[in-house]
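Milestone M4 deliverable, item 7.
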Amino acid sequence: MADSKSKQSTRSSNVGGPGHGPGHGQGLVEKPKNFWGTARRLMSYMSDRIFGLILVLIFAITSVIFQIRTPKILGKATTEIFTGVMKGQSQQKAGFNLSHLPINFDKIIHIIIIVGLMYLTAAVFSFLQQWLMTLISQRTVYKLRRNMKRKMRVVPIRYYDTHSNGDIMSRAVNDMDNIANVLQQSLTQAVTSTVTFIGTLWMMMTISWKLSLIALITIPLSLVIVGIVAPKSQKYFASQQKSLGLMNNQVEENYSGLQVLKSFNKEQDTIDAFEKQNKVYYQSAWKAQFVSGVIMPLMMFLNNIGYVFVAIIGGISVANGNITLGNVQAFLQYTNQFSQPISQLANLLNTIQTTVASAERVFEVLDEEEMKDTSTDTPVKQTSNLLEMDHVKFGYDNEELLMKDYNLTVKPGQQVAIVGPTGAGKTTIINLLERFYDVKGGAILLNGQDTRNMDREALRSHFAMVLQDSWLFTGSIYDNIKYGREAATKEEVMDAAKAAHVDEFVRKLPDGYDTVLNEDASNISQGQRQLVTIARAFVADPEILILDEATSSVDTRTEVQIQHAMSQLLKNRTSFVVAHRLSTIQNADNIIVMNHGSIVETGTHDGLLKKGGFYADLYNSQFTEGISYS
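Output delivered:
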């Protein structure tokens, strides 16, 4: 129980799998619980750039105004040509011999130049608003990321114990990217679409209110189409994203466990399972794409119907002299533009809702309770003991207390072993020593000082850990060793590498200490990874060493090297050893025996065997049944 809690944070999980938002395969993001509250909070992150936002709005509105003005101005050129043609035809009928039509080309060229300048101006303002909005949105998300990174440093360990790595990474990466993309694109698009709709409608009304009414008839029909089709499309897209996330998780799982899969001859079963999931994804994907693709043809169909009626009635109006040809041409252009903002705004509603949901997930992290610096009035105690557990009481959250009144004294140089079956709670003690969790009663003293009165970083500088699950980052072997103490000299790093038997295999590598370890350090063996972590502990030169033996899955020669390196590391050093093989801790100064999360026995090896209790049963079972507890 306690083991699983403490080790969960070190395990990797599929990023953004099902139920974790937009992770692997961009999983489905739930609807926000508090839309307006979250939206206002997100906007508050942009409050220090209010002047820039005002400029963005001004640039966007100006760009749209120039764009929607041009069709009517361009229509004047058409009217000028039409007037010249009609005038020429009248003169020819009156008997005049014309060498060319009386068209004022100077005026037409002047109109074309004005239109060209207006389009250019609209493009410049559009570029400026997009450039400025990009800066604002990226800066906003930069601030969000920085705050989240700071928050992840100060949340208690239990947050990592109760949240999967995939969910945390999904919030930090995918949700952030979602917010950035929408802030950059959707806000300005919402403004431009609204201004385009209002501006286009206004320009249409200035040309002919009768034709405008004909064009407006298509709006309710468009809204009906969007209202019916869009929710269905959203449902199918949700199914598509969920299926894609499941399929990606399946693929990642299969490739990470490829050797096991092959050894059990499960290739065909895996292929069949993939085919089944792939078919589910295919069915949901084509439905999503088909239904979403239906919106635009339907909108175009309605738009074309309106276009036809406007063209017919406009043509009749031109023939009757009620409207100029150029204005009808401009009106037809406006009719084409009229339905686009409606579709864009309908799509934006869903996009913005998804973005607010992403922001809500990020804010949930930012609102998490932080670690508390709970100092006590316990005076510093003069003692020869390096570490003491004085009447300690502890339990996870609201669960039953695992330690009710535990006492332990550790003198400098002593070795304390922690043993028990899998899940017994051995790592709980480590969590308390390093203040990943604080005690519920009593105190833990280091050199006579209550550890709750010490800064966590200062406290942890006294410790170094060598765990069974060796963790190495992507980087050179040299940097991974030096990670134990950044101030270490090259000579100290090399001495540590030799003491941990790392130097022996590193010098055989083509790039030596500059060899870059990949993401999971799989380009060196498991035993070699363990030796590197021991070298890292050598460099750290800790006062107290926490050791989780890790020789159960390596070859005999490497096991001997690891055991030798560990024994060197343990010399004249206080240590806590989480023991797997009880034969290795017979000489420990104190043995803590745990079961079901609680401490059941404490004593020396010989003393515990004489008691004939739980430890004696564990010890004897390893030899009679060959069981190794971990």
